[in-house]
Known about the structure:
The protein is α+β, with helices and mostly antiparallel strands. The chain has 26 helices and 35 strands. GO terms for molecular function: phosphorelay sensor kinase activity.
Amino acid sequence: MLEADEVIHSDKGISTGHVDVFAKLATGLLRSTSEPRDAHRLAVELVATALGGDVTLVYGLSGDARTLALSAHRGAPEALLDRVGSLPLESASLAAHVARTRRAADVDVAAKDVPSDIHAAAELGCGQRALAVPLVSEEHLFGVLVCFTPRAENSRDRSLPMLSALTSLIAASLASATRATAETDWKYRRLFEHALDCIVICDDAGRLVDVNPRACELLGASRDELLRGNVFDLRPPECRAEARANWSEFLRVGHWAAEGTFLRADGSTFVCEFNAQAHFVPGRHMGILRDVTARKQSEEALRQSEERLARAQRIAHVGSWQWEIDPDEASWSDECCRLFGLPPGTETRSYKKFLSIVHPDDRANVDEAVRRALDGTRMYSLDLRVVVEDGRERIVHVEGDVFRDEKGCPIRMCGTVLDVTEQRRAETALQKSELLFRQVLEALPVGVWVSDERGQLVLVNPAGRRIWGGARLVGPERFGEYKAWWGDSGKKVEADEWAILRALRNGESVQNELVAIEAFDGTHRLILNSAAPVRDAEGRILGAFVINDDVTEQRRLEAERERLVEALSTERRWLRAVIDGSPIGIVLCELENGARYVMNRRAEELLGVANSDPDALGKIRKRLRLPDGTPVPRGDLSIERGMRGEVVTGREMLIRAPDKPDVPVLTNASPIHSDAGQHLGTVVTYEDITPLKELERMRQEWTSVVAHDLRQPVTTITTLASMLARSSADPTARRRAERIVESAERLGRMIGDLLDLSRIEAHRLELVRAPTDIPELLAHVIEASGDRERVTLSICGDLPVVSVDAQRLEQVAENLLSNALKYGTPGTPIEVVAERRGAEIMVAVRNQGPGIVAEDMGTLFERFKRGRAQGGSIKGLGLGLYIVRGLVEAHGGRVEAESVPGESTTFTFSLPITEGG
C-alpha cells in the first residue's frame, strides 16, 4: 500500500467540458448544510465528474464510531454493495485502514495482497486503480471516499492530490451539515435511546446496524450481541424461511405491519406487533416492535372465557339477553339466538322482533308479564312458546330483572332464556305415564301390592283386592292378618317370612313362591307370590312391590290335563294296537318337523317299505301304479294329494313288486288338521282288494254270459209276440201281445246295458270311429225321441267334424235326453246346446223340474244308482248315467252335472277335437 507522499503525480486536470457541471456540483455541495446524506450524494457526483472514475463510494461513520456504512455511491454493481455495504472499522479493508490512519491511499487493484474490499471490486471489474481519502474537518472524521479509476498513464498523474483537495471541500460541507443537524440528531437519538418500544435498524441485507436499549431488554441480549446478527435471527427457526422470502417484497413496498412470534436470546418466545419502514434513510430500514404477549394472553383468556360461557350456555341450553328500553335495542347471546331459531349475529334486535317469534297464543301473556315487571308488581318469569324458522315449536322459560335510574324509572332489563321443551314434554309424558300406569295397574289380572321403605302397604290394585277378598293396608307389625301356608310343606307363613319384607330388608328378589292363602272372605286359593325391591339411581331401597298370581284354577286345570294326558296315552296305546293289528295298510305322514312317515305292519308288507326307511316316499312311488299299469304322475300319489290338503276316496291302484304278482289296492287319503285348522299331516290307507277284484271278474263274466244267453230267447219272444200282435183279430189278444213286445224290448235294453257295463268294467269296449257331424247327430236323436215339440237344439258357431263312434254317441245323447224328458216337469221345454270351447266340443242337455238333491250329486254317475226325484215312478237298473260316463270317457271326454233344486238340471259332456276330426 502506498502513502500519499509516495504517489506519482500527474498533471491531468478537469477538462473544459466538465467545468460547468463541476461548478454546479461544487455550488450545491457548499449550500448543502441541512442533511449530511445530501452532501454525500453531491460528493459522489463531484468526485466522479472531476476524476472520471468508473465507481465512486462514500462511507459514513456510525454514531458509535465502530462501523463504516455506505451512504452514497455511483456506478457500483449490486453484488459489490452486498459485499462492502457495511465495513467494521477494525476490518482489513482499504476504507477502514484509511479511516483509522486518516491518510489517503492509492492502490493498484491487480497487486497481490490487496485489501478485501479492493479484491471484491477487482473481481467485479470496477476499475484498475483504487483511490481512498478520509473525510476530515477540524480533526473530526466524517467518513471515507473511495474512487476506482483507470490506471495512471504517466508519472505526473495528479488524481490523488486533486481527490485530497476535493475531500477537504466535502469534509468542510459535512462539518457544516453536521453542526446544523447535531441538535436534531441529539433529540432523535435521545428519543431512540429512551423509546418504550423496541427499535432495530438494519441494512439492505437485513444485518442489524443499530438497536435501542428497549430492544436489548426485550430480546434479552446486549447491543454488541445483537449487532452481530440480522433481523431474521430474531424469528423462531420455523419462521425464518418465510421472513427471508418476504424481505425483498418489504424493500419494494416500503412498509410492513403484522403480528408474529419472536425469539429471545434464551430461546423463549413472545408475541410481537411490529411495524417496519424501508429506506427511512438510504440503505437503512427501521423496525418498531411492541411486545403484545400480555395483551394476547388477556385476549385469549377473554376469548376462552367467552367460549366457556357460550359452551356452558349451549350445553345448558341457557341464553342471556339484555334490552335497553329506550331506544328499544336488545342484544342476545348466540345460544339465545339458537333457542329462538335465529342465526347468531350482531344484528340489532327489538322487543317487536322478540314478539314476532313468540307463539301468537302466548303474546298477550308476554306483554302482561313485561308490563307487570316494569311496574314492579311482579317478577318477569314465565314459560312461553317460540316458533322457530322450520315451523317447530320450542318451549322456553324466560326470567329477567329490571334496572332503574336514580328516579326509579326502568331503563334496562337483563335476563336468561332456558330451553325447557324436553323438561315440559317429559313432565307431560310423566303425567301420561302415571295415568297409564294406573290404568294398566287396574287392568292387570294379577294382584300388585306396593309398600314404602318401612314396609307399610300403600297401594293395591283391584286384582289384588279380588284375590284376597279385600285389602288391609297395614305395616309389618300386622302382616299376621294375612293367613297363608307354604305350598310345598303346608307350614304357616309367619309375618316376617313374607317376600315383601325379605325384599326390603335384604334386597332379595323372589319369584313364584307357591302359597296357599285364606282370603278375608273365607275362600281358599293358591297363589304364586313374587317380590322385588325398588331402588333409586344410587341403589338405595325406596320400597318394594309384590305380585300375586292366582293359580287356583290353573292348578286345577293342570291336574285335569294330567288326567286327560294319561287317558289319552292309554287311548293312544289302544289305538296303536288296533292300527298295528289292522288288516288294512295305514301310513301316517307327520309334517311338524319335515315329512316323517309311520307305517303299520300291513303297510310295510304291502308296500315293501320299512317303517324307518329314510326314502319311504320314493320307494312308495316306485311300487304304486295306476290301474292300467302306468306310473303315477309325480305329485299325484294319494299321500301327496293328502299332504296338499285334498281328500282321496276309493282310488284304485296297483302295487307292483319285482318277482311278485300285482296287488290291486283301494287307497283313501285324508289330511289331519288341528282344532285351530293347522295342517298337521295326512293319513293314507291301502286295502288289498284282490279277492274283491276276483269276485268282480267272476261277476262280470257271469253278467256277460247271462246277458248273452238271454238275448236270443228275448229276441225270439219279441219276434213271435210282434207277429201275434199283427195277426190276431182279437183285440184283447193283440193288446196282450203288444205288452209282451214292450216287456221284451225293455228286457232287451236291460240286457244291452248289462253287456255295456260288462265291456266298460272289463275295459273291452271297442269304438268304431268315423268322421261325424255332431249337429246332424243331435238333430237325428231329437227327431227319434218322439217329443220333438218340447226339445230345442242350439248350435253356437261352426262345429268341426269329429272322429267318434256315432252309434255310441247317439246312445249317450239318447240317454241324457231320455233322462231330461223323464225327470223334467211335463210340458216344460228341453234345451240341447252344442258349442266349441277351445279344443273341445261341449254338448249340454238342460231341463226344468225338481232337480237333483245335493246328497245324490256325489253318486250320480255310479252304477245301480238312481235319483230320488221321481225314482218311484220310473223303472230301470240305474246304469244309464254310469254307461254314459264310460262311453264319454272312452272318447277322451268328461261328463258333468249341475242342478238347482226346484229350477233346472244340466248334463254336459265334452268331446275332444282330434286331428282326424
